């Protein structure tokens, strides 16, 4: 997932495979790896908040865009999204900062809203 030289399709497949294998039985290992990778690229380590958007590296943008989508698809045994997945997506929305980015973030925000829609948080 780190290299921006190779084709995007295998990297997307890897991200979705990690999301698919994330479960309570694996202690959410796939989910944790996705969050850790994303955070290593787009979060300030010292404060734990997202960095301002920077869409100049298009291949990296598309890889990093796929990670929240994969995370939003993770489900527990009861079909609900794990708390970590919900908090991750909502944190991206809450702290979105496009200052200094030469590109609009309208599509980024649209997909974040779309992915927040597919989170499953309802309780019976």
UniProtKB/TrEMBL annotation:
Domain Transcription initiation factor TFIID subunit 2 TPR repeats: 13-113
Domain of life: Eukaryota
Listed transmembrane segments: none
InterPro entries: TAF2, TPR_TAF2_C
Pfam families on file: TPR_TAF2_C
PANTHER family given in the database record: TRANSCRIPTION INITIATION FACTOR TFIID, TRANSCRIPTION INITIATION FACTOR TFIID SUBUNIT 2
Protein name: Transcription initiation factor TFIID subunit 2-like isoform X3
């Amino acid at each position: 997932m780190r290299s921006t030289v190779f084709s995007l399709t295998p990297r997307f497949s890897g991200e979705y495979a990690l999301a698919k294998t994330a479960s309570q039985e694996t202690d959410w290992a796939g989910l944790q790896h996705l969050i850790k990778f994303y955070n290593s690229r787009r979060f300030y380590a010292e404060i734990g908040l997202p960095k301002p958007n920077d869409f100049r590296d298009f291949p990296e943008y598309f890889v990093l865009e796929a990670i929240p989508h994969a995370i939003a698809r993770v489900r527990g045994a009861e079909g609900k999204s794990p708390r970590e997945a919900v908090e991750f997506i909502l944190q991206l929305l809450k702290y979105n900062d496009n200052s200094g980015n030469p590109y609009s973030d309208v599509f980024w925000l649209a997909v974040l809203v779309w992915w927040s829609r597919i989170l499953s948080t309802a309780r019976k």
